Amino acid sequence: MAPKRRTSTPRTASASAAVRGAQSTLSFQNKVTKPVSPRSAKGKAAKKDLECKAAAIEIEAEAEDDDSTAEVTVKVPKLPQSPPPSSAQPAVAPEAADPVDEPVKTEEVLGGRAETSDLGALGGLGSGWVGDEETRARKLPEAQIKRYWAEKESERLVPRVHQEGLGLAEKVLREFDMSGQFGPCIGIARLKRWKRANVLGLNPPIEVLAVLLKEQDKGNAKVQRAHVDELMSSRFVET
Amino acid sequence: MAITNGSGDDALLSKPSYALPSPLAPPHPTANHNSSSSSQPFPSLTRQSASYSPLTDFTLPKGEARHYQQQYADMYFARLAQLKPSVEALAAEAWSEFEIASETARKVDRALDVRQGELCWVIGTIYMEMPLKPNILDDIGKEHWIAAPPPRVKFLTPGGVGGDQTMLEDESGRLRLVGGALESMLLVTGAIVAVLGTENADGDFEVLDLRVPDLPRQPVRWEREDGRAAASKQKVEKREEGGKVAIVSGLGISGDAGDTLTLDLLLEYLLGESAGSEDQSSISTISRLIVAGNSLAHASPVPPRDEVGTNGQKKAPHAKKYGYDSSAYNAAPTDRLDLFLSSLLPSLPVTLLPGADDPTSISLPQQPIHQAMFPHSRTYQSPPKSSPAEPGSFDSGTNPYAFDLHGWRFLGTGGQPVDDIYKYVAGEERLEMMEAMLRWRLVAPTAPDTLWCYPFPDGDAFVLRECPHVFFVGNQPKFESTVVEGPLGQQCRVVAVPSFRDTGEVVILDFETLEPELVRIEIFEE
């Protein structure tokens, strides 16, 4: 057996130095040299802020759509509520200044898009698109959305109540939420719900997708969460 | 010793002449075996190999990608949406010219669109309202009161129809189903059916006829390999004829002294060490062993429902109800299982499915038992980051599990779905329930209702998209087998594998005929 030490000193050198007071110790409080993953930073912010929950659903939706964290990195500065994690991500901070003007392409960041996986009960593409709906929806003219909405209104005998303050986009999306044939609207982001209905072959209206993508491009994060979802979920704000 | 004896190193490498060579050499014989030193020529048989490629249908995403915020309603909705087209096609074909008293049946889109007195048919999900089903309030009550109600074998209300109701549900609403035609049908919560009938004066839907999606399309033998070869423009190599697979379940290793003998006998049988030469040649055709669940006895991290609230008194008086008492951990069962597998693996590839009592997730689909549980056997497994298409000799699979073995599509579960269906229906015929599962195209129909399950956001993974050639279910009370036939000529061999701990039986399935045979290992006790 090795001979025992006579003095009972603490084991680590830094602790013993601190005990002796001879050297200054390293402080790990403020300095983060490694970029923190945007997802964990997002997660912490979302827990504290009630309104960030909508953003979190969108982030998850987007992250699952594109299967790469690069897209998430770009979306971070677009949220109005959360403070940009500037200390954690010096690379993203310059983009935080003007988020809307130059959306960064996924292909240019971090070596490109991750490959799609065919995990998933439906065996579809990892991003959830079947065919070219995304491009078609982006090209859809505003007039067609107005026509679609006029058709929906004409199906009713009486005008809708309590919707005077809402814009056309929100009205279209609420109508989509209340269509039961596409599944429950609670607990799922609107874009994800549209994609799911599409993959299951239920033919959700392309106008709704156009509205969703337009709102998303504008940086409106709250649009992804159904209004009834907010009403039905009892999430209290931590003070 | 070589130095003292003066003999060279070659003497150490050659086999001593008194030892019997192992009759079943591993598929890649090493260079050290020097048969010239043995005097008697024992023919060494090589084990037949079979191509094996698993499917990842039931593998859940890892870590952060697994979400639990969604409700189960999404899963029911997706299940209905996935199965509706096929039921609709079948029902339309069957009932398009159906007439009663010159009234033709009409298809109705939603359950609430059914009008009273009108002959129509509608598609929806079955929901069985049974007061004796496990109820969360009962579970809470058990923790506060001293006496727990005994666990029920079946959920049916004794004494007839009483409180049990069958309902048809879709996104618009529910219809209560009544009628004599329901008595002969096997129905559980979660099955997607089309019902034909009318609404009577009470508001109940009287059922005249019922249709289920029936067996899905069956792939031809070797379809996946041929497809892959065609896609990559490679020539298909010649395939071996014959071969067998051994299926065992319910090894039930508990670390007690009592379970080692039958297990060792099974090991010797599979390695060919304990049989005569004709048996050995037939055993050498067994190309794989499938262990279908419950390899360990009470290794589940969550105690079963009936033991919640008993403070684990059955097992150990000091076991805590909540939290983890690490001093109570016994490594003997997993060590024994690991030893069993690592003795078997050099010679025989193994597929391991978890069961209700195994140390993995409780909710279906159970994820593969982690490599950390098998310190010796994991050298035969492929490294964690490799693609799922090359699993290595030891494949730790999910429950339920689907894989292609020698061209045939196999689908297997550890027994939980069938045991759960058993509680819903009055009959005792397990094969009927397995056949019903295939005809409903659902591997776990009762899944979110009484069977714990992952809340799939995008679609129900338990929906069968292709009919397997062999459907095996482990941990059943006895061995049974039949062939289920489908409307398009599909033929599926259904095998109920008994628990090895109780019966000592191993099922051997032949690849060419898909006929099962039984091998029983018993110890005669005086």
Gyration radius from CA atoms of chain B, angstroms: 27 Å
Major β-sheet profile of chain B: 6 strands, mixed
Class of the largest domain in chain B in CATH?
Alpha Beta
How big a fraction of the residues of chain B is strand?
15-25%
CATH topology (level 3) name of the largest domain in chain B: Purple Acid Phosphatase, chain A, domain 2
The percent of residues in helical segments of chain A reads 40-55%
* Content of β-strand of chain A: under 5%
Question: Span from first to last CA of chain A?
Answer: 57 Å
Overall outline of chain A: elongated
InterPro entries (chain A): DNA_pol_delta_4
Region (Disordered) (chain A): 1-103
Biased composition (Acidic residues) (chain A): 59-69
Protein name (chain A): DNA polymerase delta subunit 4
Describe, in plain words, how this protein is organized in 3D.
The complex is a heterodimer of chains A (239) and B (526). Chain A is mostly helical. Chain A has a domain at 131-154 and 167-234. Chain A is built from eleven helices and no strands. The longest helix of chain A is centred in the N-terminal third of the chain and has 15 residues, at 52-66. The radius of gyration of chain A is 25 Å and the shape is elongated. In chain A, 30% of the residues are buried. The model of chain A is unreliable at 35-102 and 106-125 (pLDDT under 50). Chain B is α/β, with parallel strands linked by helices and 526 residues long. Chain B has two domains: 52-67 and 219-314 and 326-522, Purple Acid Phosphatase, chain A, domain 2; 97-211, OB fold (Dihydrolipoamide Acetyltransferase, E2P), CATH 2.40.50.430. Helix content of chain B is 21%, strand content 21%. Chain B is built from twelve helices and 22 strands. Chain B has helices spanning 2-5, 10-13, 72-95, 136-144, 223-231, 260-271, 277-283, 332-344, 416-424, 430-440, 447-450, 500-503; strands spanning 24-25, 45-46, 52-54, 99-100, 103-104, 106-107, 120-129, 165-169, 174-178, 192-199, 205-211, 244-248, 286-292, 350-353, 394-396, 401-405, 408-413, 470-476, 480-485, 491-498, 505-510, 516-520. Chain B is globular, with a radius of gyration of 27 Å. The A-B interface holds A 39, 60, 64, 119-124, 128, 180-181, 183-184, 186-188, 192, 196, 199-202 and B 56-57, 59, 61, 64-65, 67, 69-71, 73-74, 77-78, 81-82, 85, 171-172, 456-461, 463, 465.
